[in-house]
Amino acid sequence: MVEIKHPQELARLRRLALTAQGLLQAQPYGRGLDGARKTIRHIGYVQIDTLSVVERAHNHVLYSRVPGFKPVMTNQMLLDGDVFEYWVHAAAFIPIADFRFSLPYKHAIKSGQIHWYRNPDRKLMAELLAHIRSDGPIKSRDINTKAQKRAGWWDWKPAKKALEQLYMEGDLMIRSRDSFQKVYDLTERVLPPHINSQMPSMEEFAEHILDQQLRCHGLVSMKGLTYQRRSAELRKAVKSLVNERLAQGTLEQVQLPTGEVFILEAGALERGLPPVKNRVLILSPFDNCVIQRERLTSLFQYDYQIECYVPAAKRQYGYFSLPLLYRDEFVGRMDCKADRKTSHLEIKSLYLEKPCVDQDLLIAALIDAITQFCHFQKCGSVSLTKVQPKHLGQPLSSALKFSA
């Protein structure tokens, strides 16, 4: 067990984690559509988000890592069979090569070990499945409401639940998204024929999770390895595999001053890492790097909560504040909203919380990041309402008006 005692050692752990996430390099996985494909294969998934305060999370995560990324590329990957939709700890786009590792959860739902909807309507599910088999893909909005009901169609709410149950059980897949509406089709018509669809053993599943998490995070905790996964059997298999590799010497452990223990590949601390650059990244609240909040606090001493689920009176930073990463530290957060009708990005509040040795470099990097982010939102103008510390408000506002 290596004890982390000095700030420089903790900084190296942060750099290891950020490098594994592709957040220190300019284009770690390439550009455009090919870069997006490689990014998802490396980081394991991107979370799908229905909130569109700014560009949705799945596109935002890819934008943060892939120069030249455009939101239409996400659906293109779905259409091309590069990714599929399913549940990780939330709805996500997942590399198609990992399809078989979605099967244990599907089996658990179908067999009733866990519930998606309690008491699903099997008769309605069979009718919908037969309809899709004979008539082709269907969107939930294609199903008529009671007022429009005709022979062979169903009430919207029960039918939508039945479609989702069939999808979660694995009989249906999402073929594409049409204006963000799911297009459901039979799994055998969507899944590319060369993809392995054999149920993995628990040992195979554990090995997949451990290898994936080490690849995309650099260092992991035991809790983080099976983040939000319900299976006690899987957690047991992962723990057994970790202990086996620790005994073999292919993994090692580090302990932070707080007492928390992380696991990493043996020799990872001695590897060369890319240098940090004077750039700011505006990340999604659902970014893979920040979604495990306890890990974020442990490694980066950054206390973060998305407050859209918090009552307005109790919000500290705003409805949809975005984490700000500068060099290898989280230095603040920015609450903003993109108005699509006026093509305007409103920054409601901007908080810079950590002192910086050279504040001018940070401000220049922040202005550049906001300008690029504004373009990503297809916004031609930007405004800044509130800034902490206050003395930065006027220079930032002036610079952003000029830049946008």
Q: Mind explaining what this structure looks like?
A:
Helix 13 (359-376) crosses helix 14. This protein is 38% helix and 19% strand. The protein has a domain at 302-403: Aminopeptidase. Residues 145-151 have low confidence and may be disordered. The chain is an alpha+beta fold. A hairpin with a 2-residue loop joins strand 12 (321-326) and strand 13 (329-339).
Mean pLDDT: 92
CATH topology of the domain at 302-403: Aminopeptidase
Share in helix: 25-40%
The CATH architecture assignment of the domain at 302-403 turns out to be 3-Layer(aba) Sandwich
- What is the assembly state of the chains in this entry? single chain
Figure out the total of helices. 14
Query: How many runs of DSSP E, i.e. beta strands?
Result: 16
| Outline | globular
Short note summarizing the structure:
The chain has 404 residues and is α+β, with helices and mostly antiparallel strands. 38% of the residues lie in helices and 19% in strands.
